[in-house]
Amino acid sequence: MFTGIVQAVGEIAALQPSGGDLRLRVRSGELPLDDVALGDSISTNGVCLTVTELPGDGYWADVSRETLDFTTLGGLEVGSRVNLEKALTPASRLGGHIVSGHVDGVGEVVSSSEDGRSIRFVLRAPAPLAKYIAHKGSITVDGTSLTVNAVNGAEFDLNIIPQTMQETIFGSYRPGSRVNLEVDVIARYLERLVLGEAAAEPGAGGLSLDTLAEHGFLRR
Questions:
Q1: Would you say the pTM of this structure is higher than 0.85?
Q2: In this structure, are 111 and 180 located in the same domain?
Q3: pLDDT for residue 187
Q4: 73 and 12: one domain?
Q5: What CA–CA distance (Å, rounded) separates 51 from 38?
Q6: Structural domain count, the chain
């Protein structure tokens, strides 16, 4: 588990295809690894990766085909900059929100504009994720915990302060940039809880107006 508070920006040092999967070497930059052991987890652009080697200036991790298919990691190149965060401990401050490192989908940067000393970004989420994104709710973008300022369909606004621009890779985003999105874990579990016993039925999907009405959440 993570908090979504990026601790350092690293750099991709090597990419090694391996049997359809990928081995990834990351230079960790200012992220201290003295307390990291083999098997520990590090969020890399919002993706929870397991450390398989510690060469001294960073770490190696294996990236499965599933992860390559559902995140932006397959599009990284040597030299690409990535947001890094070590897994939280019981003594960690939860400065952001609870982040699992399990990416829900890939979004796209629509636009950016100056907003005082901050930069306002508009991002577009995949349509199936739009229902989990709420005004003033939390969302994780490439491992960064952020508050949603506005929602318009599948598009949502983020206000990025100078500190976040400096300490993450947000400064490299341009219209069309693809980003890893993780919605608030509470929203995902709430959907399953509302389904009740129907969640155990084969083919049970997400919420519908009929389901909400059946369980007393809507009146018709």
A1: yes
A2: yes
A3: 82
A4: yes
A5: 5
A6: 3
